[in-house]
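Now read the record:
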Amino acid sequence: MIHAGLRLSLATLGIISLGRLVSAAVAETAAPIIPPLTDVQNSSGSKTEKAVFAGGCFWGVQAVFQHTKGVTSAVSGYTGGTPAAPSYEQVSSGATGHAESVEITFDPKQISYGRLLQIYFSVAHDPTQLNRQDPDEGTQYRSEIFATSDAQQRAADAYIAELDKARAFPHPIVTKVEPLKAFYPAELYHQDYATLHPDSLYIAAYDLPKIANLKKLYPEFYREQAVLVGGDQQ
């Protein structure tokens, strides 16, 4: 796993200013994309629904949705492979078929599945990179949506087609869409990582810009306090 070696404190390295410059440069490249024409209606009347997205290292994806209004929980984990309940070391080998992913619980009255998709494609990751994100390479870092219902599957497939037709990105989208079979929460030390380690070089360079982009592009859905797996808001 490439980013394991980058978990170094900017303070220890004495290059906090470099991390801020990298974050600022990445944040400036953010651009809005069209919202989906097709969304998922909450016909069941349930108070919460779930979405599962994979898009590179789960630290940054989790952080984005922890700062998204209407999201009540965002848990890092593993999806799409065997065996059941894999360890981080197993998934990092690239041999299990799992993807680092995030299970999002949200209130459909506050934010729709379609809006979550819009944030996922424009802020949380680059959907045009095949089996990699930033410095991380391997199928465990693939771009994939794990649909929890037929309605989610149809909405995700339709949105990808709309984005490609609109040429929202300079390259074709490679994101896969498959039904969710099982989600396995990651180890506790991976949860809330971006919030708990803001001085990490990796977090400063690749994940803090995502949060800044969320605030910049979707201020109406941004919240300053992250909803943490640990229970407290920061």
Observations:
- Residues 150-166 form the longest helix (17 residues).
